[in-house]
C-alpha cells in the first residue's frame, strides 16, 4: 500500500493515477467532486461558517470517506491512495488552530478518529508500506492551485488558510507521522503531467524506495 500526501494542489491525484498505471495497483482517489460541503467550506462567509459549522462537517465527511477507502484498500494486494486517513488529523488540527473547529468539535473528532484507527489496527495490513510526501514551496502551491482552476479555491481570502496548512506540513510528516517509511519528493521543478521525463523520475524514486523497504 502506497499513500500520497501533501498540500492542496500539489498533484496527488495525478501522481496516484501515474503510480497506478506504472505499478499496476488499484487506485483510490480522494472524494472531492461529489462532496457537497467542500464548495461551501471555501465560499461561505465567516458568519455562515460559524453558524453552519461547515469546517467540522467537512472534516467528518472526509474522515468517513477515508475510513471507507482504507478498509477497501487493504483488501487489494497493491493499492495506491490519494490522501489517506492517516493524514486526516492534520487538516482537522489546522482548522482547530485557526478557530474554525471548536474545542468540543475537535474532541469529538479525535474520539471518532481513535475508534476508527482501533478498527484499522485490527486489519491484517495495519498501515501503508510507504507514504510519498510531495513537497513544494508555497509559491509553487499557489501557482498550481490557480492552474487547476477549481473556482471555489481561487478566493484570495483563502491565502491564510493555505499558508497555515503549508507551513506546518513538514512538522506533521517528520514529527507526528510514524505509520510507515516516508519518501519526500521535491515538486518545485517536477511536472509529472506534462513532462514524461519527470514522470519517469517520480516513478523510479517510488520504486527505489519500495525496494529499499523490501516491498515488491
TrEMBL record:
Coiled-coil segments on the chain, per record: none
Gene3D superfamilies: P-loop containing nucleotide triphosphate hydrolases
Entry-linked InterPro entries: DCK/DGK, Deoxyribonucleoside_kinase, DNK_dom, P-loop_NTPase
A GO cellular component annotation in the UniProt record: cytoplasm
Alphabetic keyword roster: ATP-binding, Kinase, Nucleotide-binding, Transferase
Name this polypeptide is given: Deoxyadenosine/deoxycytidine kinase
Keyword field contains Transferase: yes
MF term (GO), any: deoxynucleoside kinase activity
Binding site for substrate: 30, 42, 59, 83, 88, 153
Active site, UniProt feature: 82 (proton acceptor)
Binding site for ATP: 6-14, 144-148
Deoxynucleoside kinase domain: residues covered: 2-209
Highest taxon, organism lineage: Bacteria
Keyword Kinase attributed: yes
